[in-house]
Amino acid sequence: MKRQSHILSGMVLGMSLALAVGLAQAQTGSDVVNVKVPFAFNIGAQTFPAGEYSLKPLLPHTMLLRNEAGQTLTNINANSVESREVQKAAKLVFNEYGGRYFLAQIWRADDNIGEELIKSRAEIEVARKHVPGQQIALRVLAHR
């Protein structure tokens, strides 16, 4: 009797885990955003050179930044942000302060919900020295 109970519990746990993983993948989709960034930029305290990058959803509110060779460079954690208007094209938004650029938002085409990165200590410190900053939006090369 106890053995059947353990087997049943294991099956329920396995099915629950499979369902949770499936739901997470369904929420993130398989949308990969490719973009050519013409300037060096920061994500948190990390600096990345100008070049072509891809952003791939990993989990809800988590994306992987990959370089042109497909190597994962960092995880990007973000919160949802809502726009009044549906975005016509996918884009990345950067905050610029005194010639330094920080990734701020990620938007997909045909959606009014995007991802907004939390300002890092490095960005807050640079922003204090270079007020006011501006925002730069880059359209993506491809969105699959």
Give structural notes:
A nine-stranded antiparallel beta sheet has the order 10-7-8-9-6-5-4-1-11. Strands 2-3 form a two-stranded antiparallel ribbon. The chain has two domains: 1-28; 31-143, no CATH class. The protein is 25% helix and 45% strand. The protein has helices at residues 2-28, 121-129; strands spanning 33-37, 41-43, 46-48, 51-59, 62-67, 72-82, 91-97, 100-107, 113-117, 134-139, 142-143. β8 and β9 form a beta hairpin. By secondary structure, the protein is α+β, with helices and mostly antiparallel strands. The protein has two helices and eleven strands, in the order αβββββββββαββ.
Characteristics of this structure?
144 residues; alpha+beta; 9-stranded antiparallel beta sheet; two-stranded antiparallel sheet; 2 helices; 25% helix; globular
Number of domains: 2
**What percent of the residues sit in helical stretches (DSSP H or I)?**
25-40%
Which descriptor suits the 3D outline?
globular
Q: What string gives the helices and strands in order?
A: HEEEEEEEEEHEE
Structural class by secondary-structure content = alpha+beta
SS elements, strand count: 11
The helix tally amounts to 2
Low-confidence stretches: 9-29
Mean pLDDT: 83
Indicate the proportion of strand residues.
over 45%
Taking the sheet with the most strands, its summary is: 9 strands, antiparallel
The rounded Rg comes to 19 Å
- The termini sit apart by 51 Å
Question: Which strands sit side by side, in order, in the main sheet?
Answer: 10-7-8-9-6-5-4-1-11
